[in-house]
Amino acid sequence: MKVTQPRGPGRGGWAWRQARKHVLERDGYRCQLRLPGCTGRAVAVDHVVPLSRIRGLDPASYRQIALDPQNLRAACTHCNSTRGAGRRPKVVRVVSSRW
Ligand SMILES: [Zn+2]
Predict the structure, then answer these.
(1) Any idea of the CA torsion for 69, 72, 76, 81, to the nearest 10 degrees?
(2) What is the pLDDT at residue 92?
(3) 75 Cα: distance to centroid of ligand 1 (angstroms)
(4) Burial (0-12, 13-18, 19+ Cβ within 10 Å), 76
(5) Residues whose Cβ atom is located within 5 A of ion ligand 1
(6) pLDDT, tens digit (0-9, with 9 covering 90-100), for 26-85
(7) pLDDT greater than 60 at residue 4
(8) Residue 29: which of 75, 83, 79, 78 has the closest Cα?
């Protein structure tokens, strides 16, 4: 089976690819987040505890958490990017420029 995968920034490497594949197969390639607008088809992997929250750990522990299947779940691109964008609500500012 050939799967084309977009390469995520900063997440390269054999270990990450293995963990990611494992989680996607475990979750049946179905998105586990189900946020509004979810496409349902998981192509990405989301961290349950965001890595941004576990700063300050030593690199070995950080890596372990980053690759821990218990801390990973399958996500579609929509949900993944929604969460990855941070917890700020998406606010589109319409600046009306008056001439
Ligand atoms: Zn989704």
Answers:
(1) -150
(2) 55
(3) 5
(4) buried
(5) 31, 33, 38, 76, 79
(6) 999 999 999 999 999 999 999 998 887 877 888 888 888 899 999 999 999 999 999 876
(7) no
(8) 75
**Domain-by-domain residue ranges, the chain?**
28-83
pTM: 0.70
Query: Could you tell me the distance, in angstroms and rounded to a whole number, from the CA of residue 43 to the centre of ligand 1?
Result: 9
In angstroms, what is the span from residue 42 Cα to ligand 1's centroid?
7
To 5 degrees, how large is the angle CA 49–CA 14–CA 73? 30
CA of 80 to the centre of ligand 1 (A): 7
The predicted structure's pLDDT at residue 8: 44
The alpha carbon of 18 and the centre of ligand 1 are apart by a number of angstroms equal to 21
- Name the residue among 71, 65, 69 with its Cα closest to residue 23: 69
C-alpha–C-alpha distance, residues 30 and 17, integer Å: 18
